[in-house]
Every structure is written in structure tokens, then in C-alpha cells.
Amino acid sequence: MDRLVLALNPGGTSTKFGVYREGEPLFEESVRHLPEELAALGPTMNQTGPRRDLVLAALAEKGFDMSGLAAVVGRGGTFKPLQAGTYRVNRKLLDDITEGSTLQADHPSNLGAPLAWAVAEPLGLPSYFVDPVCVDEMIDEARPSGHPLLPRKSLSHALNIRMVAYKAASELGRPLSDLNMVVLHLGSGVSVNAIRKGRMIDTNNANDGGPFSSQRTGSLPVTGLVDLCFGGGYEKKQLQRMFLKEGGLMAYLGIDHVGEAFARASKGDAEADLVLRAMVYQFVKEGGAMAAALRGDVDCVVITGGMAHNGWVVEEITKGLSFLGRVMTFPGEAELEALVRGVLRVLDGIEEVRTYN
Description:
This protein is α/β, with parallel strands linked by helices. Helices cover 38% and strands 20% of the residues. The protein has two domains: 4-140 and 335-355, Nucleotidyltransferase, domain 5 (2-Layer Sandwich), CATH 3.30.420; 159-331, ATPase, nucleotide binding domain (Nucleotidyltransferase, domain 5, 2-Layer Sandwich).
């Protein structure tokens, strides 16, 4: 077979796209969007048409023949809670996104499914989204936070997490549905997951808690947080930026790159050394908590995301969690590949396509 799939991943200032033949990339590209141009469009969903046009222009410039495509897939966003899997884009989803009441956050990933539809529909092709940010398979005990006004929400890097879980299962020679794993996705935000028999039964929401990362604060002392919000002289948007974009390494060291922080620590910077060790300590601690959620029945620990490229980070996590079993590493965030793999699982009959309703 020789199926071609176009994958689309909209981000804050770019749209990444790639064409894959049977899971292997023919090419991957990225088109940039000027912040002022996006701002001039108004609501986020108004970006669908302009982003589509830029992607189509880039494909035409490469001389790519769209008639050869079998499907188009876009990243899934912060929709209402959904099971993991691959979904066909339908009118119900598009209407819900446009109406906005079911969205859990305003995020560029919400554009992925409408963008895939906008490209595929005129060509008579099916469009999909795969393992969206809102994958929610949490067990009931994981939902209460400590106050009924603040339930825990399942928002995570599900797309990459599920892909590396499949890869780990393949290396172990067992189906994912038979395995229990702790998966640590380490990027600008951190998602640490407990996977039981293939289901993501618990996760930290990187925006709301868990370990701090290169940009996000993770969990914070509650009483101090209240004092900061009401007595620190900050506006809401300032605090949101402080916690989600300027926290973690950025807040302590003024940088958000682990490699640079490690270089500083290696040259004797005591603060950089402490902050790095504290961050990894929190990764390990959260991983241990997820192992406890699995009652200690863990087949493997998987490390992924951008920080997994750093050998020291991987080594320290391995030291801390190897008592649980085999530790496997899949560096990076191959989201385009993950999207395509999800579509191929459906086309190959390995999974049934899901319906959004």
C-alpha cells in the first residue's frame, strides 16, 4: 500500500505540517504567523481560513499533488472530555468548537480539527483528530482536588504520551492494552501519567499542578498563592503569564532551556545546580506517585518530550525510578508522526474510529 496522509499541527505562532507515506515522512514544514497578523483576526477560530491558505500555498510551492492524499489529520484540542483514540471530524465537533461552550481552554490546538476539515472537505477526503489534549480516562478517585469548586481536569500531552506508550509496548512485544506504565512527558509543561491496561487513569494537568518545568510553576503553596493574588499588586493576566510562561527555570534562572541551565551548573553556578536538581526531584516524586496509583504494578517507565534529549535529566530520573522496572526513553515530541500513526491504526483496522457526539 502507498497511502499518503497530511498532518497539521497549529501552534501559537506557526502551523507545522507534514506529508507521510505509510508512516514515513516525505517532508515536514512549518509556516510562520506574525503575532500582529493573528491578533488582527480577532477570535482564535478566525485563524482557520488564513492558516489553511498558507499551508495550501506552501504545498503548492513544493509541487505536491493533493489528489494523492488518503486522509488529512489535525491535532485535537481542549474539547470536552473524550476517550483516547482517533476521531472523524464532523459537523457536531465543528459547531461545538465555534460555539465555544465545550472548550476547556483557548489554545491553538483547538484549530487542528477545523483546519483538517477545511483542507479535506473540498477534496472529498476524510479528516481526523487523534488523542486530543482533553483525553480523559481518569478514575473517579483521581478527580476530587480537595474542594468541590475546583475539580481536577484531565488535560495533558496525550498525543505524544499515547504514541510513545505504543512504541514501548512494541519494544516489549506486548499489546498496550496488557501493560501498566508511568509515562513522563517533559517539555515546557510536564505531564506525568499512570497508564493502566492502556488507559490513562491519572495525570497532572501541567497548567494546574505537578512538577515545575522550564516555564511552568506546577503546584504552588496555596496560602502563599492566595496572598500573591490578592496582595501582590498583580493583574490576572500578569499572574497567568507568571505561572504558565515565566515560572519554573525561567523564574529562578531567567532561562527556559535545560541545556543552558546544565551548562551553568557545570561551571559552578550553585543556584542553577540546585534548581535543576529540584526540578528533576519533582519529576521523580510525581513518577513515584503515579506508580503508587498503579499499586506498584508497573511494567515500564517511559521518558519523553524535549527534556528527554538531555542525558543528565534522563540519567537522574532513571536513578530515581529504575526500582519500578525498565526505563525507556523516546526523546522529543513527534506530534505529526503521532497524528499519522493514529490515522493508520484506524485505516489498518487496529482501532475502531471514534465518533464525536
